[in-house]
Protein: Aspartate aminotransferase
Amino acid sequence: MSLIVEKFKKLGAENAPGQETRQSTSNIELRGEEIPGTPVDFSHGDVDAFEPIPGSLDVFVEGVHIGGKQAYTEYRGSQNIREDVAQKLSNFTGSSIDYDKNLIITPGTQGALFLAMGSMIARGDKVAIVAPDYFANRKLVEFFDGEVVPIQMDYFNTNTCCGLDLTQLEDAFKSGVKLFLFSNPNNPTGVIYSQEEIRTISELAHQYGAQIIVDQLYSRQLFDGHSYTHLCAQNIMDPENVITIMGPSKTESLSGYRLGVAFGSSNIIDRMEKLQAIVSLRAGGYNQAVLKTWFNEPEGWMAGRIKDHQAIRDDLLSKFNAVEGFKVRASEAGSYIFPKVPELDVSIIDFVKILRLQAGVTVTPGTEFGSQFTDSFRINFSQDHKAAIDAVERIIKVTELYRK
Amino acid sequence: MSLIVEKFKKLGAENAPGQETRQSTSNIELRGEEIPGTPVDFSHGDVDAFEPIPGSLDVFVEGVHIGGKQAYTEYRGSQNIREDVAQKLSNFTGSSIDYDKNLIITPGTQGALFLAMGSMIARGDKVAIVAPDYFANRKLVEFFDGEVVPIQMDYFNTNTCCGLDLTQLEDAFKSGVKLFLFSNPNNPTGVIYSQEEIRTISELAHQYGAQIIVDQLYSRQLFDGHSYTHLCAQNIMDPENVITIMGPSKTESLSGYRLGVAFGSSNIIDRMEKLQAIVSLRAGGYNQAVLKTWFNEPEGWMAGRIKDHQAIRDDLLSKFNAVEGFKVRASEAGSYIFPKVPELDVSIIDFVKILRLQAGVTVTPGTEFGSQFTDSFRINFSQDHKAAIDAVERIIKVTELYRK
Structure:
């Protein structure tokens, strides 16, 4: 097999969210009839149930009418919009972001992650990745010929922190890891890193001269009055060693516009822009205009959104907790929960296919978040409230059919 | 210097189109006063002078109103839109494109190029690249740790073909080159590969088992009744070894929407989709809807656009040809010309900076298209007709000030 074919063998996308229709299901045998109900795709949020920030389309249309200046921005994004976003993110994080040096607008937060990783990982570099964490993290390290060093997170046996194994992280740095990437709140569990965890991570990175990428995609949607610690505002590490990633695709439902930002280290942002120049030139020019609505939502809009999501979360947690063998930690932020399922006599991959075929419910298998998560799946509960509850009831019915 | 820093040193973007405002110009001394006139940015087309396909924004807005289904498409793009585009491109090229297997929608043609190269080049692979050709081609090979093997094109001493050195191409294949990438019409010269050149390229690639990527971005905008040969319709090579790239960013002025497509080899398209999944998930969901207007322009719109561009081209060629020392081949397609300048006593990089500072005219230095093109620059003449002529007059005035 050629090198490139081998490389792409490892880069599987068939169990990734959104790709389910491309799966082979010929090996699946259903036990019993299909269970009727409104189909629910828990692999991503439903932007029909939770619509984009009001006025987003209007701002896009204004961008189109600006014309060439908006169509052809610098690769790092339109200067006007960077000024606005840098100010808003400085306020939000409590850090100082220079629009010209420290920020790049990217095609989604996925784009930001790709550019950051591509700008920081050389062949053979060891990169620490949390287990579990967002599935693309591991794939990105592998694509850039790095080596993944997993750091375990004990999210079930903690409740005032996320449970990251900090000893393992220090050992990783000792063994030569120069980059640590993690999402906060964690994807898929929705747990938030405590202030102490963030401080310790910063201190260790500082001590060992490591770089950090924090993916803060869901850091605005906090439940139960939880507090949130921005690593970029800790002033412990050299700021040139930190990149923070955010974007309006999730809480703000703007995924269809493909917008994200990365901010922090000017050297790394410079490299990210050079890479952007050959990857896709820039985030869609007109699309960039939509960032004006971000952090600029109507009064009460964000609070309402958080309240609605918290209510859905609570109902889904009650449903799962009432069933013998399910185990789930309450998410503290974001729209994910990551239930552990009872022992089944089918694999998690097949179970996920069965859920789709038999119950019209799409979830993401735990193995996408780390190979050991063969007993969990992820739900994005940013859905129509009633449809989500009904769908979880169907998941529970299907579970009973395939329980060991 | 660390490996990654070294890698990005080579990946310069500061002389790339659109990045001119980030250049250092402190070393530049102007001879004489600024020459007044409407600023013209020849580094890309002016979408205010030549507007996007009528109705594009309406189709985008419809896409937003479709909602979640349009926001979250498969990574390779919305099925409906792939069906439509595959049909239109099959008709245009005279080849058979299965929407499900042979086509991916990408963030611009730059996105298509990046995904194709990333899916085909392994570390150490030799890749043949034309000199001159689009500047990102070389950078992409270097980013993926391949080795560039340049193939010369004698565009000045030919006129019924582009002048590609086919002996050099065969030698390259003999020496182990497994991938040949070229743009047709050629960027920056605007010359079209003859049918015989395309056939010979196909035969050589077939004979040596090589793969081909053809960037056909400008293949709809043909002047003077020139004919165009689609490599993908020649039936000489194994179709699994060919990827063709197109998009509506240039002739159709849709660059602000960041849309492109790649079609051909199902194996390579599969890999490109896996890569897309970690690069930016998908082309902007709502943006994809805009492809409905492509190849579906109002009656006479494309013919009018070609006529207008041909008229601008003719006027600019007359201006340059009237000046001692300028040499330029008439472009046969697309919106580029690539004039060779008289001998100057400043470098082409500085001359380009001088043009911007002294005459308000932005052009792209020849060295972006191959290191030997130290005496040429590229102009994208998709501009307001009168402003373009005036700007070329200013270029000529500045040339006289810096002539050796």
Notes: Chain A has a mean pLDDT of 96. Chain A is about 40% helix and 10% strand.
